[in-house]
Design a protein that fits this description.
Layout lengths: L17 E2 L2 E2 L3 E2 L4 E2 L1 E10 L2 E8 L5 E7 L6 E2 L3 E2 L16 E3 L6 E5 L2 E5 L7 E5 L5 E5 L2 E6 L2 E7 L6 E3 L5 E2 L9 E7 L2 E7 L6 E4 L12 E3 L11 E6 L5 E9 L2 E9 L7 E8 L7 E2 L8 E3 L2 E3 L8 E3 L9 E9 L2 E9 L3 E4 L7 E2 L5 E2 L2 E6 L6 E5 L2 E6 L6 E2 L14 E4 L9 E4 L2 E5 L7 E5 L11 E8 L7 E7 L8 E4 L7 E3 L11 E9 L2 E13 L2 E13 L3 E6 L5 E8 L5 E7 L4 E6 L5 E3 L11 E8 L5 E7 L2 E4 L8 E5 L6 E6 L2 E5 L3 E4 L1 E2 L6 E4 L5 E3 L1 H6 L3 E5 L6 E7 L2 E8 L4 E4 L4 H4 L4 E7 L3 E10 L13 E2 L10 E8 L3 E9 L4 E10 L2 E8 L6 E8 L4 E8 L2
Length: 881
């Protein structure tokens, strides 16, 4: 609104209901399962037991209480251990766990040392500070652990679970520490010993003394390796109830690898070794049941029904295949030899008949690492891709029903991306990507494989994966897949299908480096009737300079060829892309220094940075989306360090919308409700708009035209009030440039414009915005009479070109500031490493010259980056010596 400058009156309040969006608390979707890393049992009574799990998730530990009463066995829903769940910061690294049957306490190895815990809030206790032990074992009321070459042991109080270390502990064994070590009790002859599996040419050690008789002279002696073809390949240890010792090993190299088993009785002089004929690797132990004389042995996805001998091995779940076991842990219940649990592609499974029949028991296991999600236009059918399979929801907006994990053609590799054909009104046509691309046209009942880029002629490594997958919404036969290469020596590639995913061809040429790029996200955009692909990639440093970065624009087809241009010239990594409501784009990621960055490209324009004010100083933006703010405006939402932020309508400062627990990762954001894909599962959050907007009225100089002297004598001011008594933020703006902000905590306060505004204000109009975090009220318009002399100052942030450039050894550049603010100026090499910090701290409004003396730096191309709370800019300079 432009006021008539011939008058000296203005409306008491000019109100626009520009609302910022508050997020409700997240509601977990019924997406259960996840990557299980460790397991242990303990009996809690004669008819009940407890199963403990550690997961590759921010929800670190879970337990399920199991009832064995009557003729059936029932698993209770899994519960996260309260002191070791997503808000406790232990993360995904707990692998070693062991339960004490008498006291019921669980002991586990994690950052900070050795810990113990129960299912009670406040029970978490540090047993021994230090590094996380490499191996722990609990047996008959004793706790043993190996840490940094030292062996510790002591007793556990059967009532309180308190640990008392023996007076002669620890012992220095002279055995090197290594990941994957295992401690396990077992018979050797007629005495019970403790075995230690380590790495190297001597993989197995045995205590010289029997359990319960350890002292200062106790040693662990190497077990003879005669009969073992490759002792260094041993990865798993097991002990049978008859005194037989088992070793599991790997034959071949991933992905062409197989399980081998060796066993030895105490009376034997060598190991009996054989290839089981089953593929894969395993967890770190072989589990034996207790029933004599024909006990069973379990090793990853297979089991022996007769003492572990050659020819007695079978696949777990080979008569049911409700779910697929994977090569992790497997363990029998202490109350029932026929009840075993094992890790599965989905999470955790159980067999009630010792192995042949396997069923999922994932209920409540919120440990699914959701990597991507997509929903149909009707908001009824959605798909998620995770490290433990695909999941589909139907009737999402009314009565959502989630499927169990789906594994196309039995492929248990982690899935990273999902894409739906939005022209299929049934939502049944979907593509999924792991290291291959699969397609289903019947909602996941059947799948066809269309692309495997590990095969000739592309030959990408086994460790690459499809990080980005997209279907052209205007041509559903066109599908693009972007690979990310996890190995530093290789880059990913971009592929396209124009026949609905049957065949694929590589996209190359133009500005795209000849050796490819690591693709993070893909987006189809309609530009004047042409379907254009935008690709966000990692910043990659190769051959002494940056060879791929930011955003590429791709237009064309297989027949006519491709026009590929580097659409964004900033030297950054772009993790995610999305559209805005006006035909433009957002891109987000991080710069070479690991700071979050967000850019916008208006329709028909070019990329420009968006204010990063109030975003964390470090961390990558892992996801971005745009959606409704609760009252009709479309605004961007981003995830940084596991937290969700939004940029309110017309605002220049990001607001923290929801703070997920420490250790949580956010991998994708999708808008209708805000769906948040995290490292523990999928959550939905509603935006809730307040019904009580703040109010403001003029209490200083009236709106209209005023001279410099008049404004100085009677500064503009507004009286603020809020029914909800919330903290208010008053922003003063010249055009779209923020002059300053004030946080107001009292109602009825008359707040003047910030001191020094005249030297910062742009010629022309300035106004205010008042926000309670949900509503933003805009009002006032004062016009400075420019015929009156005043000090000329910059009106906004600007970085001028460095001069000279190229240079040797000194160059300078000018930074313009429209107001006093924090400024960080730094120099990076093209690998993103910090070379020099030139300025860090507050600088006053005005023009400032900053110099860099590069006398001690080698010749080459460098990036000067200047960051303020309002904007950032960068430029390249060449040092020639």
């Amino acid at each position: 609104m432009k006021l008539n400058l011939s008058t000296w009156t203005c409306a008491v309040l000019i109100l626009s209901t520009a609302a910022h969006a508050d997020l409700s608390g997240p509601e977990a979707e019924a997406v259960y399962g996840g990557m299980v890393q460790g397991m242990t049992w303990n009996a809690t009574s004669a008819s009940s037991s407890r199963l403990w799990l550690s997961t590759e998730s921010a929800n670190s530990l879970f337990y399920s209480d199991v009832s064995h009463s009557g003729s059936s066995t029932t698993f209770g829903s899994f519960q996260a251990v309260p002191d070791v769940d997503a808000d406790d910061g232990f993360g995904a690294d707990i692998r070693q766990i062991a339960a004490d049957e008498d006291s019921g306490w669980l002991f586990f190895s994690a950052e900070g040392g050795l810990w113990r815990v129960t299912d009670s809030v406040g029970s978490l206790t540090l047993v021994a500070a230090g590094n996380a032990p490499e191996a722990i074992c609990v047996h008959n009321g004793w706790l043993y652990w190996f840490d940094g070459g030292q062996f510790h042991f002591g007793s556990i109080d059967s009532a309180s679970g308190a640990f008392t270390e023996s007076a002669t502990s620890p012992l220095t064994l002279g055995i090197s520490s290594a990941p994957g070590m295992t401690l396990m009790p077992g018979l050797w002859g007629s005495s019970e010993r403790l075995f230690l599996l380590a790495e190297g040419t001597t993989p197995l050690y045995m205590s010289a003394d029997t359990l319960g008789a350890f002292g200062s002279a106790t040693t662990f002696d190497p077990v003879d390796t005669t009969g073992l073809t490759d002792p260094e390949a041993c990865v798993a240890l097991g002990t049978g109830p008859d005194g037989r010792v088992f070793l599991g090993f790997v034959i071949g190299v991933e992905p062409d690898h197989f399980k081998g088993v060796a066993w030895r009785d105490s009376s034997a002089t060598s190991w009996t070794e054989f290839d089981t004929g089953y593929g894969g690797t395993s967890g770190s132990w072989l589990q034996c049941t207790s029933a004599l004389p024909t006990y069973r042995v379990y090793f990853g996805t297979i089991y022996s029904d007769s003492l572990g001998v050659n020819g007695s091995w079978h696949a777990i779940g080979d008569t049911s295949f409700e779910t697929h076991p994977n090569d992790g842990g497997v363990m029998s219940c202490p109350l029932n030899d026929d009840l075993i649990v094992c890790t599965t592609d989905q999470g955790i499974g159980a067999s009630h008949d010792g192995g042949p029949t396997l069923v999922e028991i994932d209920d409540g296991l919120e440990a699914v690492q959701v990597k991507d999600l997509e929903m149909d236009s009707a908001k009824e059918i959605a798909w998620v891709a995770s490290k433990s399979g695909l999941r589909q929801v139907s009737n999402y907006s009314s009565t959502p029903t989630w499927s169990s994990a789906i594994f196309p053609n039995g492929d248990g590799s982690p899935f990273w991306s999902i894409a739906m054909d939005t022209t299929d009104a049934t939502g049944a046509t979907v593509y999924a990507g792991n290291i291959r691309v699969y397609k289903s046209t019947d909602a996941g009942s059947n799948w066809t494989q269309g692309l495997d880029a590990q095969l000739s002629p592309w030959n990408l490594s086994f460790f690459s994966h499809v990080a980005a997958l997209e279907v052209d919404p205007w041509n559903p036969d066109r599908v693009v897949a972007g690979y990310y290469a996890s190995e530093e020596t290789e880059k990913g590639q971009l592929f396209v299908s124009e026949d609905g995913g049957i065949t694929f061809d590589i996209i190359s040429g133009g500005d795209l480096p000849s050796d490819g790029a690591d693709f993070n996200d893909l987006l189809f955009v309609d530009e004047g009737g042409t379907s254009v692909i935008y690709a966000g990639v990692d910043y990659t440093y190769t051959f002494g300079f940056g060879t791929s970065w930011a955003v590429y624009r791709i237009e064309g087809d297989i027949a006519s060829g491709w026009t590929i241009t580097q659409d964004m010239t900033f030297g950054v990594t772009i993790k995610d892309l999305c559209t805005d409501n006006a035909g433009g784009l957002y891109a987000a990621g991080c710069d070479g220094g690991g700071h979050p960055v967000v850019y916008q490209k208006v329709a028909g324009g070019s990329w420009a940075p968006i204010s990063w004010s109030n975003l964390p100083g470090d961390g990558c933006v892992t996801a971005i989306t745009s959606g409704d703010d609760g009252v009709g405006h479309t605004i961007p939402y981003v995830a940084v360090n596991g937290d969700v932020y939004y940029l309110g309508y017309g605002a220049s400062v990001w607001t923290l919308a929801y703070e997920y627990p420490e250790g949580m990762e956010v991998n994708a954001l999708y808008y209708d409700d805000l769906l948040v894909a995290t490292g523990t599962g999928l959550y939905a959050q509603n935006t809730v708009a307040s019904t009580n907007a703040p109010t403001a009225e003029i209490c200083g100089i009236e709106c209209g035209s005023a001279s410099y002297a008049e404004l100085l004598a009677d500064p503009p001011a507004v009286m603020v009030n809020d029914v909800d008594s919330e903290s208010l933020v008053l922003s003063w703006l010249a055009g779209d440039s923020l002059l300053c902000q004030q946080t107001l905590t009292a109602n009825g306060q008359c707040a003047e414009i910030c001191t020094g505004f005249l030297n910062a204000a742009a010629a022309g109009a300035f106004r205010y915005e008042l926000s309670d975090g949900t509503w933003t009220v805009t009002g006032g318009e004062w016009e400075l009479n420019t015929s009156t002399e005043r000090v000329i100052q910059p009106v906004a942030f600007k970085l001028e070109h460095a001069y000279p450039n190229p240079f040797n050894p000194r160059t300078s550049f000018v930074v313009e500031l429209g107001r006093a603010m924090q400024v960080e100026a730094a120099v990076y090499n093209l690998r993103g490493a910090l070379v020099a910090t030139l300025q860090k701290g507050e600088m006053p409004a005005g023009r400032h010259t900053i110099s860099w003396n590069a006398e001690s730096v080698a010749s080459g191309l460098y990036v000067i980056q200047v960051r303020t709370p309002e904007a950032s800019a960068q430029q390249k300079v060449m040092l020639l010596k």
